[in-house]
Design goal:
Elements: H1 4-12, H2 20-39, E1 52-57, H3 63-73, E2 78-82, H4 83-96, H5 103-112, E3 117-121, H6 128-143, E4 147-152, H7 170-179, E5 180-185, E6 203-204, H8 209-222, E7 231-235, E8 238-242, E9 244-245, E10 249-253, H9 254-259, H10 264-273, E11 276-282, H11 290-305, E12 309-314, H12 318-322, H13 331-341, H14 349-369
Parallel strand pairs: 1-4, 1-5, 2-3, 3-4, 6-12, 10-11, 11-12
Antiparallel strand pairs: 7-8, 9-10
Helix pairs in contact: 2-3, 5-6, 6-7, 10-11, 11-13
Length: 370
């Protein structure tokens, strides 16, 4: 299992020198995995405490970076996923599960079967239905002795902030504080800002002929020979009108994606089908509507988490339009992620496809020259 020195070296290879809180997290995570190693043949949640690590703080403070580094190094049966992805999976199982006295507990045990280390990225609870589900799920996972790592923008006490329901989540909050090492990432630096800009711009404003030309160039570069023509697709079983659809890149108007009634399930489906997405004709006045704004936040979160490419054409710079808006959860995280998605450091699945094509061309040229 990775020790502190190995995790620190892996971060250094990414150009990160851990700050005080990151070092605390590294120590706690190494201890967590060390206890897991010793417990492998005598699994007992009561014998080993703490059983998890809860990393929280402002966006871009390195929570996911540290946890992802640990996850890559961990040699055990493991699972890492985004909160939206988890909700989709567990709800699908609940629909098909036989009725019983503890159907959610039964489904949770089935879902957790074979997992020794579970990492949740961007853990949050905003409504009572999710609170009930997560409370029972965490209780089951802790009872099974599974090691759990959570990253969140929220301190445990701030989960489910709705005053009408917060009290009902207090037992789960108490369990998190009792069973997890809680670390507040309070560094001043947001690591996603200040990076070198991407060689090819990804966000465009205003909505003019220059932006349209840039989007056509992007689509053509990733989908050579594919026609730019309307098509009707499906997202989570709902129809979606696209401006163009290739094998790896999809081009859709903002109104179809976020003004229309959609959920995070639609965006999970799209991120599963395509490596990149062009969001066109984003008129930022529409973001004054809280539901539209929340859908955009879900879309960005999911595509960022899946390391998908995102290209946006809007009537004004998207970051400028988002600053100061209210009515949706986790906007500060979205702004932080948008900053990284425009940088050279952000390389997603679409870039990997391009790298493979470049390598193929180089190999072909070398073969011809030999």
């Amino acid at each position: 299992m990775p020790d502190e020195a190995r995790i620190t070296r892996a971060l250094a290879a990414r150009g990160i020198t851990p700050d005080t809180r990151q070092r605390e997290a590294i120590s706690a995570l190494a201890a967590l995995l060390g206890s897991q190693q010793h417990a492998r043949h005598a699994w007992s949640s009561a014998a080993f405490a703490p059983q998890g690590v809860y990393c929280h703080g402002l966006p871009g403070r390195g929570k996911s970076l540290v946890v992802d580094t640990l996850f890559e190094l961990a040699q055990c049966r493991k699972r890492r996923l985004h909160f939206h992805e988890f909700l989709r999976e567990i709800n699908r199982r609940l629909v098909n599960a036989p009725r019983g006295d503890d159907r959610l507990g039964d489904v949770s045990r089935q879902w957790l079967d074979g997992i020794e280390l579970l990492c949740f990225d961007e853990f949050h609870v905003h409504d009572i239905a999710d609170a009930f589900l997560m409370g029972r799920f965490l209780d089951t996972a802790i009872g099974l002795g599974i090691r759990i790592v959570l990253t969140s923008n929220y301190a445990p006490d701030d989960l489910l902030p709705d005053s009408e329901f917060h009290e009902r989540f207090l037992p789960t909050i108490a369990q998190i504080k009792r069973c997890f090492t809680v670390i507040h990432f309070d560094g001043a630096r947001d690591y996603r800002f200040g990076g070198e800009a991407a060689e090819v711009p990804r966000f465009f404003a205003p909505l003019d002929t220059s932006s349209q030309h840039a989007l056509r160039e992007i689509f053509a570069s990733h989908e050579p020979g594919a026609p730019v023509e309307p098509s009707m697709l499906s997202a989570a079983g709902r129809p979606l009108a696209a401006r163009a659809a290739g094998r790896a890149l999809l081009w859709v108007d903002f109104e179809q994606l976020c003004v229309a009634s959609r959920s995070h399930l639609d965006y999970l489906d799209l991120a599963g089908q395509w490596q990149g997405l062009i969001v066109d004709n984003l008129h930022t006045a529409a973001l004054q509507q809280s539901h539209t704004l929340q859908r955009l936040i879900w879309l960005i979160d999911i595509f960022y988490d899946r390391k998908r490419a995102l290209f946006i054409a809007s009537d004004q710079p998207i970051e400028t339009a988002l600053i100061g808006l209210e009515g949706a959860h986790d906007l500060s995280r979205t702004l932080s992620r948008l900053a990284e998605m425009q940088s050279r450091a952000y390389r997603g699945a679409l870039d990997a496809i391009g790298d493979e094509k470049t390598d193929e061309v180089k190999r072909a040229e070398q073969a011809e020259g030999s």
